[in-house]
Design brief:
The structure is a homodimer of 210-residue chains. By secondary structure, chain A is an alpha/beta fold. The first copy, chain A, contains eleven helices and six strands. Chain A has a six-stranded mixed sheet with strand order 1-6-5-4-2-3, with helices on both faces. In chain A, strand 5, helix 10 and strand 6 form a beta-alpha-beta unit. In chain A, helix 2 packs across helix 11 and helix 7 crosses helix 8.
Chain lengths: 210, 210
């Protein structure tokens, strides 16, 4: 075993190994996206993300601008919320919220027979203007964001579209990509709250430090 | 897109697709472990877990027995804690805790120059007797559990050993497997808080329902 036990040293060594393996695979990452791609691999130990991460044009600038102006961050799971590095976010005056466990959201979802994720996004649209959306679970959240944006009822600053799964996931991601909303998306079935948080934190660390 | 929007229907359809794909791969899962294996694939969309999930002998019985007696559940991340299905756990009189953000843990880790995960496990050993450990991030947490158990300072009822990463991860998992402690482990580099929570929830749902 490696004789490294300090968290930041473990992380540095992990990124060294990831960079080395990418190099050995003969791959070269675009400098602009390298931190995001490597952090997703760090979080998953899954190098298939080398081939699936989609960045819309100027996605990184849009995300960093939104972070610098203290935009509210809305997640679709408490796991993604837990994964976001709060102290870095606070440095920029930002805050992260998740409405999924709110009683009004649950009630309305039940009454309308839709997902809580969908109702959460509607709540976010009513409460804030230019939010950052970090979606790691629900394709219905992504679909609602795209619909609301196209109806002029929401103006997302930036969306991380990383639901995981087998039903409507690839289709929802494609709709987000086609919408022209600034976004980062792991195409295909893979993703998750951990992946969504990793993408977010990579950009956050570049913007605010740690 | 599939015209399914109710959460439980989406989940049922996802599991149907997963079962179908496993069958088409010519694989048959041991009935005892099928719910865990499929839920991990549901959480990750990653079928490589078919080949890596290790179950110690009688792991499922040990886990279910601990759940039925209301054992405390200790996680090494707030993400894993967030992913655990609390209302099912409450039915069994159990509770889940994570000491990672505790001030005394942070202080002691800083002073001793070790990871907070390691100090968290020591805190758990002092506070409870037969806990369930759900480890999704820190190999140092696993190593500390094995050491404390071998020193007779901890008696874990059951351990989910699912750290993810590149430094000491596969080695720490192997030490857990070799220790004889009842455990479930995704061998190799992959894992994560989401995987750890998925393994836990699969067993929880079998024991308590939802």
């Amino acid at each position: 075993m490696t004789d490294i036990y300090r968290p930041m040293e473990i992380e540095a060594e992990s990124f060294r190994i990831i960079s080395e393996e990418i190099r050995r695979m003969g791959r070269e990452l675009p400098a602009e996206y390298a931190s995001v791609i490597k952090r997703v691999i760090h979080t998953t130990a899954d190098f298939s993300y080398l081939d699936t991460l989609y960045f819309s044009e100027h996605a990184m600038e849009a995300a960093k601008r939104a972070l610098k102006t203290g935009s509210r961050v809305v997640t679709d799971t408490n796991m993604a919320l837990a994964g976001i590095h709060k102290s870095s976010l606070r440095k920029l005056g930002g805050e992260a919220v998740c409405y999924m466990a709110d009683r009004d959201v649950a009630k309305q979802a039940e009454r309308r027979q839709v997902t809580r994720a969908q109702v959460s996004m509607e709540k976010a649209a009513r409460q804030g203007d230019k939010c950052i959306y970090v979606i790691g679970n629900a394709p219905t959240a992504l679909l609602r964001i795209v619909d609301l944006a196209q109806e002029g009822k929401m103006c997302p600053a930036f969306v991380i579209g990383a639901p995981v799964g087998f039903v409507n996931v690839t289709e929802a991601k494609q709709r987000l990509i086609d919408s022209g909303i600034p976004c980062i998306v792991p195409r295909g079935r893979k993703g998750g709250s951990n992946v969504a948080a990793a993408i977010f934190n990579a950009i956050l660390y570049e913007t605010a430090g740690r």
